[in-house]
Amino acid sequence: NALGNSLKFALLSVPAGMAVALAVAILVNQKIRGITIFRTIYYIPAVASGIAIAMLWIFMYLPEQGLINTMARMLGLPDIDYLKRTEWAMPALAFMSIWVGLGPRMVLFLAGLIGIPQPLYESASIDGASSWVCFKKITLPMLIPTTLFVLVTSTISTLQMFTPVYLMTQGGPEGSTDVVGYHIYTEAWVSFNTGLASAKSFILLLVIAAIAWLQFKLLQEREMGGTA
User: What's the average model confidence in pLDDT over 19-44?
Assistant: First the structure.
């Protein structure tokens, strides 16, 4: 169940987080005065304290005084206690994760965008290609190594998630957010089954190692295909 919750969390947060990060990276890659300030602002959540961020989002998710429900009432929508509802707790954590992980993912995508040779875009522009065609035929293919790296590191990060669950939901409601990291913690320090917790930690290590190996394998095959 804990592994299933972790996979559900990864499916909710990783694809959406990567899409948002890529969109922001494209925006901050524009040559506009003061764009460095925006890049810094987007990265602030990544360097802030995890505990402080979790507390901030607890207040944002409050059913009556919280910012999200206050804005919802302005739109005529009902209050929702996001962290106490089984159908909303995991999406709420995933939404927070997208915001927190925006900075690192954006920086990686930005580095990939900067590394794309500009003559490719110039040639496509001369041939009459639209911005969407350039994005689909040039940007996305050239970003495949970066995208794969972001995908793997983001997935590993979601499997290791602990602090937000510990502070915001404690694995609830009804075990809906009992992810692997928090499950191992409760096994060791609540139930005091340290042996079982160690075994589960080792299994998690094997899963993470397998994901990392798969990444290197795919990158190696792509490099060999590109040089062939």
Answer: 86
Q: What's the token pair of residue 219?
A: 């990158």
Dihedrals φ, ψ of 179, to 5°?
-80, 175
Q: What is the pTM of this model?
A: 0.90
C-alpha 21/C-alpha 8 separation (Å) is 20
Question: For the residues 105-130, what does the mean pLDDT come to?
Answer: 92
The closest alpha carbon to 13, from 156, 166, 163, 142, belongs to 156
Backbone φ, ψ for residue 213 (5° rounding): -65, -40
Alpha-carbon distance of 157 to 56, in angstroms, equals 21
- Per-position DSSP letters for 57-90, written without gaps between them: HHHHT-SSSSHHHHHHHHTTPPP--GGG-HHHHH
